[in-house]
Amino acid sequence: MSRGRQVMVLVAAVAAVAAVLYWAWRSRPDGAPAAQPVPGLAWVPAESGLVAGINLAAARGQPWLVAELREVAGAQTETLDYRAFVEATGFDYTRDLDRVWLGVYGASEQPTVAGVAEGRFAREKILAHARAQGARVTLQEGIELYEVQTRTQPAGNFAFAFLDATHVAFGSDARAAARVVACWQGRAAAVGTDPGRRGELERLAAGQSLWAVDDLARWQPTFLRAQKDLQSVVTVLAVGVAVSGQGLTLEAEARCREPQLARQLHDNLRIAALAGRLALARQPDSASRAAGEALGNLTFTREGDAVRVRVLLSPELVARLLGSPAATPARP
Asked: Which of 22-26, 68-72, 213-217, 222-226 has the highest mean pLDDT?
């Protein structure tokens, strides 16, 4: 074979390999969304064991989900406190609230909740309503903090403070709200102060419209404290919901104490999902059968000490789960 022909064959072979590599790259599955900064992590108190966030602005961008939420909300009875608040201020969380970040800490039986809400608020109307309710006002490093007593049973307290025009600190009592104010001003440690913890929370929150991460060593809800078997296996539980025109993508992750325990949890979850699917498929109601279908669509993966579960719920399946007429996703 002449040298010129050899060169041509070599070039053709390289081109073929390059074409295959390009096709493989274009056909690769979508990876996990890149972690993005989460502003609220700088304002949620560091002692929080459960940390959560919700992006209502993203939900409002999906008309099918808005319709479902309205259907569900219409069947709920608003509390006396909330009805009075809406009447006095004109605030509508489905329209005016964009994002919320919160943390939970303290006793499981009576947890402390503290966080920040972002949105559009009629400040003067809200403050006037709080004063009319007999709010106790204190000053926290130049910021007014309002604490009111709720009338909804069981009665308790609720505290808030305007941090600026679009951010409101809140807490289950004045001390909790004051902790958020201190984080906002940089006077107290927040969950985002620890770079390692911030990075892990940002990874789990990436691409999610709603997310929650519970470090079981820091805080546990009452129902989890009774699950001794689970506590001996899992150290961190995380859940997330991503909203899109295709539906709701639900993801969950459990960090185990060691890889062997993760392998056992992975296998047990798959068996439980299969058993649940078979049991629900025999139920007469549509919601149960929809739940069984969702269980059948679950995908399970394991990596080291982590077990992950994922499922996509179409708008039609969400409607069946909620027992409402099938929703139609908006055309792109």
From this structure: 213-217
Q: Which residue has the tokens 């077990």?
A: 307
Report the DSSP pairing between strands 97-105 and 112-119: antiparallel
How far is the C-alpha of 250 from the C-alpha of 125, rounded, in Å?
38
| CA-based nearest residue to 143, from 93, 97, 187, 111 | 187
**How far is the CA of 249 from the CAs of 201, 207, 225, 252, 277, in angstroms?**
18, 10, 28, 10, 19
pLDDT band with cut points at 50, 70 and 90 for residue 152: low
Q: Torsion angle of alpha carbons 240, 224, 323, 298, nearest 10°? A: 50
Region of 304 please: left (phi>0), alpha (psi -120 to 50) or beta: left
* Of 143, 121, 145, 147, nearest in space to 134 by CA: 147
What number is the average pLDDT over the span 305-309?
Answer: 98
What b/e sequence results for 31-67 when a residue is b if at least 16 CB atoms lie within 10 Å of its CB, and e otherwise?
A: eeeebeebebbbbbbbbbbbbbbbbbebbbebebbeb
Domain boundaries along the sequence of the chain: 39-194
Average pLDDT over residues 23-47: 70
- pLDDT band at residue 146 under the 50/70/90 scheme: very high
Give me the residues paired with residue 244 across strands: 247
First to last CA, the chain: 56
Distance of CA 274 to the CA centre of its chain: 26
Q: Quick one: pLDDT at residue 62?
A: 86
Of 6-20, 114-128, 140-154, 298-312, least confident by mean pLDDT is 6-20
* Residues paired with 238 in a beta bridge: 213, 253
What pLDDT sits at residue 9?
A: 35
Alpha helices in the chain (DSSP H): 3-26, 56-60, 63-74, 80-89, 93-96, 123-132, 174-184, 195-205, 222-225, 228-231, 259-281, 286-296, 315-322
Find residue 291's DSSP bridge partners.
none
160 strand-pairing partners: 146, 170
Average pLDDT (57-77) is 74
Is the Cβ–Cβ distance between 162 and 89 less than 8 Å?
no
